[in-house]
Amino acid sequence: MYTTIELDEQEYEVFKKFSNKLNPNTSHDYLSKVILFKEFLDEKELVYATKEDCGIFIADIKEKYAKSTCEKIYSYLHSFYNFLKKEEYIDVNPFRYVEKPVVTRIKTKDDVLSISEINKLIEGLHKLNIRDRAIIVFLVTTGCLLNELVNLKWKDFIVDEGNNYYARLGKGKKERVVKLHPYCFRLIENYRNYSGLSEVIMPTNDFVFTTQKSNSITDRNVRIIVKKALDIAGLSQYSSKDFRHSFAAISLRLGADEEDIKKQLGWSDKYYAIRYKYVLNFVDSESIDYIIDKDNMVINKK
């Protein structure tokens, strides 16, 4: 590991100018990557970094970080050095001479649970408390992002005349309404009852999933819950993001239309489905209606 250092006063002023339009979290993320490179350079100032420095640095982080993290570090530093060039602090962006670490977006069997593995996961949920059971089933049967689950509020639930339940997920262009599996909504009702809330769901701004100490839950809380559920099922090789991949792959394998999956998951383009072409033979033969109709999924017997 490198010795922790900070940017000098002039470098920090330049960084503030670069990041003045970024939100605080993104700015902090950029700063951490710039400082990481500064630590690698040791006593050399950022503006004197050479293409050789950049090449060695990228090779070095490839040995220490996941491919997706390396890609992010490269992209952030490339953007920062483009800014330095634009503002004429440097003549050439040295990162332009370094090959960008690229993560393939094509999904493999390592990214997707089969139906039998999802069955194992569901069968082990009785070992979790009612809130955590509801969280796992919501993630598995909607394919939602963690932040979408974390930000879910009681006002986001909808019921139609046929007593089908839906949830509004996402924001802005990614806002969408998704159908809920009956077992998923039943768990949410049980969770409400356990929490001492009224039987009737009122359209309030209160968060659905909370902790004993807070009126909301965090991404980190959810990842811990997911890890516990996967460990119980003997599926510790997977993580929370794989539930979303699994939903997409299984739905496509069972005949769901790419446009329907695009709407369900909030993809910007239905052609994201091509990422799953290599795993469709592994998910042992849908949008949620396809899944509901399958006898070989234990969730339908709950």
Give helix and strand order, one letter per element, not per position. Answer: HHHHHHHEEEHHHHH
Strand content: under 5%
How far from one another are the termini?
Answer: 50 Å
Question: Reading side by side through the largest sheet, how are the strands ordered?
Answer: 1-2-3
Biggest sheet record: 3 strands, antiparallel
CATH class of the largest domain: Mainly Alpha
The helix/strand class is mainly alpha
CATH homolog superfamily of the largest domain? Intergrase catalytic core
- Helix count from the secondary structure assignment: 12
What's the number of domains? 2
Radius of gyration: 23 Å
Please count the beta strands (DSSP E, at least 2 residues each): 3
The name of the CATH topology of the largest domain is hpI Integrase, Chain A
Rounded mean pLDDT is 85
